[in-house]
Every structure is written in structure tokens, then in C-alpha cells.
């Protein structure tokens, strides 16, 4: 059959299933086909399919006259990179930004516009490194976050806007944000003065805590791995890899879709955790932050006893790890979330509208050996009173461990009513076993 005799509807359907490169070739066949390939409804579908665009905008978010022009500007802006990798990086950022838009718009507002090739080249020239392709493209979309570092006596809530998130226990608070290129250059230079191995091994600082607690993430531009510093950061032996090494592949001759460094893998995994609710937003008073404590089983345990629900999970605190001591010592922080279910506190068939914590008991294991059996009043000096409908009472604490894996379990003693006005005998509330373990991904 002569292609010119094919009906308009059929031609349009064929066009929708072709790659943009093939459409460009077909446009040269005849004026009729050129007309079809200029139809903006066709390019709107291509823009949505390849870039998830619902409006004709360029890579900086500026409007363009048509979807066809939008697609052309995208291709021209990233002409020096594999297109499949560009699309993958965009999906990564879209996942994170969609979650931020719906849950934490204040943090999304701190994301900077994409860096230019000139800015990226300046970083490489000044620091004498060559960024892996995926990281270059990540910066082309967003040049980190605009958040100032603060001293420990600062009261502003800006310190909690890091899109990577954090945790707190006692007086230890960290919240990690992505550094813009200007800070990458400045702070890498400063740190490298004291830690010469960073310069020799082509490390750049790409993420850090916004507080005075130093939690630092370094990208090794040679092997593509992302590392986090431990407590005594003096040599590269005091760094921990943040992504499974076997996933990293920087060979440019391979399928471009499979080129991946740790920075891209790290942010993709972070986006997945946000989207599925593995980690969530924590609201304390007027302050919000992304809490890195896991919310899903099996790493988050849940137990209900007499109407009292206890959820518990833990995470590694890399900046508290000592890898160079006589024995490797790990630090874990754990989060306990307690609440009273709608029916209240039920004891011997009787329902009470409140109950209050009095005592705690922890059994802490390193591997399978008990290393601590703790009994004491209160939790972090508090005696939380639980009532139906109240928000979870949340507190964090920490536990050092001589091994990279272990567990915690135990119980709380509550009294029905209040401690000053008990309505029955004390009762035990179970805290189900939850793991302390070195994760595949460190955030």
C-alpha cells in the first residue's frame, strides 16, 4: 500500500508510536507528512511520554510557545548528554519534588534553579575533578538548596528544611541538605586544607547538615561512590560508603540508561522512600522536617498492649561511628512512637480514658549477645500521658554498639489514669523487637 494513501487518523496513530528522531525524518518526506509532524497535539503526547510534561515549558520551567518547541529546547539544553540518562534524572527529581509539593512545600522552595555548564566547569577546574555524568545532569536540573548553615544557638526553622532529612536525640540534631556548586567549591577547599586525602582522591563535598553538627557527604569523582564521614574524620578509612558499590557503573560505552553513580542512585532511593511512606514528615510545634526513622516493617516494629500502641525503629548515626578504635563502635539512634487507641486503655475489660508511663525496660543485643539490660523511670526525663485522639508521643534516644548489627526490645510500665491519680494497677506494654543494622543506603 502506498503510504500517501493511508488515512489521516491512521497516520496520526502511527506518528504517536514513533520516536521523535523518526518523526523528524518523516517530516522531510512530503508536505503532508510535514503537516502531521507539526501538529502540537502529537508533541504534547511526546513531551508527556518522555518528560512527563503537561505544559510546554523548558528545563528551567519557562513557558514556550508550543510543545514542539519545548521538546526542542530540552534536547538542545542537554545535547551533550545521553538522552535516556537525562530522562532518568528528570524522573528522579520529579519523584522528590512531587512529594515535597504535596507534603513539604517549604523545603521545595529552597531548591535552586539548574546550574549552567559554565558553573559545572568552574567546579571541575577549581577542584581539579571530573564529575560523573549523572551528577552533572543532577546539577543541571537543580543546583542544590539555598540554605545557610547556622550556629547551634540559632532558633530559625530554616535548619530543618534539608530535603534529605535527619533526626535528633538529646542535644544532637542533624538535617541534611544538598549544597549548591558555590558551596561545594568553598567548603571542599576548606576541608581539603586539613584533609589532604580528599584532594588527592578527588572527593567533593555535595551534602551536609545545616546545623553545627557535622554530617558530611563526599562524592568520589573517580569511582562514583558517595561517602559519609564518621566521628574521627582523618583519612579515607573514616568514610563509609552510602550506596552498594556493585550498583555503580560509570562506563560510557555501555547502555546509557545504565550509567549510574552513587549520587543518582542515592537520590532515586530517597525519592522512593518518600513516595511509599518509608520515611515521613515530622511536625514538632511549628517546625517540620523529614524524619529518617523508618516507618515500615520489618525495620519498624508495632505492638499493641491493652490499647497502647508502640511503634519503634532505629537508624545508623554515621557521624557517631568510630571505625579506627580498638573495636569498631557503631552508634544507633532509635525512635519510639506511643499512642492510645480510640477505645482507650483496656484493663480486665474496663476502659480508661488515659494512661501514663512510669517505667522503662530495655534489652539491647549486639548480634545475639545481650550487651545492656536497662531499667529506669521515665523516658528522656518525661512521663508521657496518653489519651485517645492525641498525636503520637515521639521521643528519640541512642545506643552505642560494638557490632554493626543488633536489636532492641523491652517494655514500658503504665498506670491507668494518671500517676497522681491511678485508676488501677500498673501494667506492662510490650515494645516489639526492632533491628539495629548497617543499612545498604546511608542517608
From TrEMBL:
ApaG domain sequence ranges: 302-443
Record organism: Medicago truncatula (Barrel medic)
GO CC annotations, alphabetized: SCF ubiquitin ligase complex
Pathway field: Protein modification; protein ubiquitination
Record's keyword terms, sorted: Ubl conjugation pathway
A Pfam family annotated for this UniProt entry: F-box-like
Name this protein carries in UniProt: F-box protein SKIP16
Family matches, as InterPro entries: ApaG_domain, ApaG_sf, F-box-like_dom_sf, F-box_dom, Knr4/Smi1-like_dom, Knr4/Smi1-like_sf
Residue stretches making up the F-box domain: 1-46
Coiled-coil features, chain-numbered ranges: none
Keyword check for Secreted: no
Keyword Ribonucleoprotein attributed: no
Amino acid at each position: 500500500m502506498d503510504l500517501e494513501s493511508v488515512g489521516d487518523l491512521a497516520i496520526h496513530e502511527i506518528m504517536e508510536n514513533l520516536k521523535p528522531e523518526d518523526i523528524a525524518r518523516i517530516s522531510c518526506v512530503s508536505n503532508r507528512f510535514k503537516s502531521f509532524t507539526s501538529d502540537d497535539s502529537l508533541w504534547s503526547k511526546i513531551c508527556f511520554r518522555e518528560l512527563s510534561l503537561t505544559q510546554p515549558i523548558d528545563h528551567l520551567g519557562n513557558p514556550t510557545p508550543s510543545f514542539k518547541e519545548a521538546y526542542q529546547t530540552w534536547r538542545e539544553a542537554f545535547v551533550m548528554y545521553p538522552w535516556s540518562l537525562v530522562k532518568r534524572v528528570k524522573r528522579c527529581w520529579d519523584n522528590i519534588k512531587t512529594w515535597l509539593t504535596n507534603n513539604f512545600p517549604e523545603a521545595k522552595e529552597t531548591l535552586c534553579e539548574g546550574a549552567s555548564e559554565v558553573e559545572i566547569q568552574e567546579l571541575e577546574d577549581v577542584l581539579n575533578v571530573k564529575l560523573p555524568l549523572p551528577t552533572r545532569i543532577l546539577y543541571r536540573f537543580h543546583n542544590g538548596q539555598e540554605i545557610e548553615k547556622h550556629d547551634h544557638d540559632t532558633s530559625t526553622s530554616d535548619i530543618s528544611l534539608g530535603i534529605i532529612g535527619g533526626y535528633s536525640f538529646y542535644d544532637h540534631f542533624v538535617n541534611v541538605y544538598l549544597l549548591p556548586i558555590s558551596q561545594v567549591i568553598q567548603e571542599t577547599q576548606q576541608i581539603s586544607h586539613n584533609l589532604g586525602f580528599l584532594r588527592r582522591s578527588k572527593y567533593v563535598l555535595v551534602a551536609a547538615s545545616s546545623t553545627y553538627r557535622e554530617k558530611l557527604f563526599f562524592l568520589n569523582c573517580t569511582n562514583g561512590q558517595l561517602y559519609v564521614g564518621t566521628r574521627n574524620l582523618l583519612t579515607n578509612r573514616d568514610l563509609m560508603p552510602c550506596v552498594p558499590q556493585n550498583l555503580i557503573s560509570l562506563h560510557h560505552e555501555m547502555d546509557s540508561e545504565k550509567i549510574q553513580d552513587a549520587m543518582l542512585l542515592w537520590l532515586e532511593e530517597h525519592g522512593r522512600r518518600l513516595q511509599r511512606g518509608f520515611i515521613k514528615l515530622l511536625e514538632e510545634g511549628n517546625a517540620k522536617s523529614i524524619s529518617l526513622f523508618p516507618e515500615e516493617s520489618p525495620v519498624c516494629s508495632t505492638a499493641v498492649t491493652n490499647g497502647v500502641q508502640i511503634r519503634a525503629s532505629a537508624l545508623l548515626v554515621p557521624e557517631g561511628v568510630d571505625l579506627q578504635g580498638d573495636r569498631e563502635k557503631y552508634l544507633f539512634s532509635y525512635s519510639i512512637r506511643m499512642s492510645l487507641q480510640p477505645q482507650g486503655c483496656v484493663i480486665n475489660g474496663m476502659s480508661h480514658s488515659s494512661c501514663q508511663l512510669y517505667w522503662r525496660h530495655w534489652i539491647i543485643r549486639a548480634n545475639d549477645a545481650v550487651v545492656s539490660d536497662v531499667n529506669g523511670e521515665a523516658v528522656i526525663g518525661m512521663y508521657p500521658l496518653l489519651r485517645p485522639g492525641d498525636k503520637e508521643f515521639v521521643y528519640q534516644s541512642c545506643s552505642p554498639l560494638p557490632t554493626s548489627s543488633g536489636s532492641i526490645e523491652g517494655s514500658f510500665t503504665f498506670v491507668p489514669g494518671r500517676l497522681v491519680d491511678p485508676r488501677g494497677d500498673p501494667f506492662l506494654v510490650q515494645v516489639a523487637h526492632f533491628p539495629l543494622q548497617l543499612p545498604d543506603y546511608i542517608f
